Amino acid sequence: MEPVKVGLLGLGTVGGGTMNVLHRNAAEISRRAGRDIVVSHAAAREFDPKDIDGLDKVSITNDAFEVVRHPEVDVVVELIGGYSPAKELVLEAIAQGKHVVTANKALIALHGNEIFSAAQAKGVTVAFEAAVAGGIPIIKALREGLAANHIEWIAGIINGTGNFILTEMRDKGRNFADVLKEAQELGYAEADPTFDVEGIDAAHKLTILASLAFGIPLQFDKCYTEGIGKIEAQDVEYAEELGYRIKHLGVTRRTDTGVELRVHPTLIPERRLIANVDGVMNAVLVKGDAVGSTLYYGAGAGSLPTASAVAADIIDIARALTVDPDSRVPHLAFQPDELSDFPVLDMDQIETAYYLRLTVEDKPGVLAKVTGILGESGISIEAVKQKEPPSGEPEVPLVLLTHRVLEGDMNRALAAIAAMDAVRSVSRIRVEYLD
Ligand code: HSE
């Protein structure tokens, strides 16, 4: 059978890794795909040829549109990242009747609805396994392995850079900027690393997971996003004393009234497997009604792990080249005309437990007043700890864990607490039990 010809856009961390995986495992990949997969064309402005295998057989240009429009190319693999020109290149590839593989979560989260609709009209596939959780085949799991389930919720550590930073800070006491720099050098961080630390990258990925799980269109603009920048060393310490770990989590849950879609630092009981996922590793916990809880773990970033997902998508496309387009696995797991308009909930409407840390004057009646305000708001307290004041300080940290409560009720209670004369500062981190 004729080989499948691939046009690769980008020869950076993931592009170079994809060349290397396709080259090193060519024989096995061919046995799996039923035909050879050959990178015939590539577009790149800057790359380091000494780290990339098999480039001698590739025609390289700096004009990505030339590759997209080349008549020999069957599959366009977009590994440039960003919104533009990635979007234009992907839409042009579709218009040319070519299948597309992309690792670009920002592109899919923001423009996926338009891209999938164009692909469907042309009868081509846009595959994006590498867009979520690097090398973990979570998209295949949701679209195929769990297709019989009513998915109830998903919780994931889905940004490797953020998890690497939190782990290094906790275990080695390293400072934020140093660890971020190392993550950039290792090729984990986004081109704009604020995407990693402010939770935007995780929100892109969670948006995709929610659509696959619940059959709703991609709605990145409705995802609540909070980064890791405000986590303090004392919160990590107090959380551990209470039996929890702080992780930056993406959570999406189906409720009776809508879908929760949120990314934020979260306390998780330390006995949960996912609480022990460290470094650049990602993990996604999926709760289905039939299967129960399933956990997917692996490298969430990096050259070869991400290339593993990109190459798997190319193989899937090679296997299905002759399949009737309507019989292929739908892009968002549900048939395109079966997507629902079930709403994404505002944060005020979500329900979760809370860890609260207040800095208060150390004098009689303060704790009673704080707990009184929480009680009046219907917020039930699970644990309270008053910490020793730092030496010579007149103020003490007061740490509370609450039961589950509506975020809107908690916001009102915290505003009343923050207005107390004796309260200097209030911070909160959401808590998920994931049981
Ligand atoms: N910057 C991303 C991360 C890369 O750190 O997880 C993989 O999407």
Output the number of helix runs: 14
Task: Could you tell me the CATH topology label of the largest domain.
Answer: Rossmann fold
**What is the molecular shape?**
elongated
CATH superfamily of the largest domain: NAD(P)-binding Rossmann-like Domain
Mean pLDDT: 96
* Oligomeric assembly: single chain
| Count of strand segments | 17
The set of bound ligands, ions and cofactors reads: L-homoserine
* Unreliably modeled segments: none
Query: What structural class is derived from the secondary structure elements?
Result: alpha/beta
- Name the CATH class of the largest domain: Alpha Beta
Distance between the termini: 50 Å
Number of domains: 3
- Rg from C-alpha positions? 24 Å
Helical content (DSSP H or I, runs of 4+): 25-40%
Q: Quick one: biggest sheet?
A: 11 strands, mixed
Q: Which strand-content bin applies to the residues?
A: 25-35%
CATH architecture of the largest domain: 3-Layer(aba) Sandwich
Description:
The longest helix is centred in the first third of the chain and has 18 residues, at 105-122. 35% of the residues lie in helices and 25% in strands. It folds into 3 domains: 4-135 and 303-338, NAD(P)-binding Rossmann-like Domain (Rossmann fold), CATH 3.40.50.720; 139-298, Dihydrodipicolinate Reductase, domain 2, CATH 3.30.360; 347-431, 2-Layer Sandwich (Alpha-Beta Plaits). It has helices at residues 13-24, 26-33, 64-69, 86-95, 105-122, 138-145, 160-172, 176-185, 194-197, 200-214, 233-241, 303-319, 366-376, 407-418, and strands at 4-9, 37-43, 59-61, 75-78, 99-102, 126-127, 151-157, 224-225, 244-254, 259-269, 281-288, 292-299, 351-361, 381-386, 395-402, 405-406, 423-431. The protein is built from 14 helices and 17 strands. Bound molecules: L-homoserine (HSE). Residues 134, 159-161, 188-190, 196, 201, 300-301 line the site of L-homoserine.
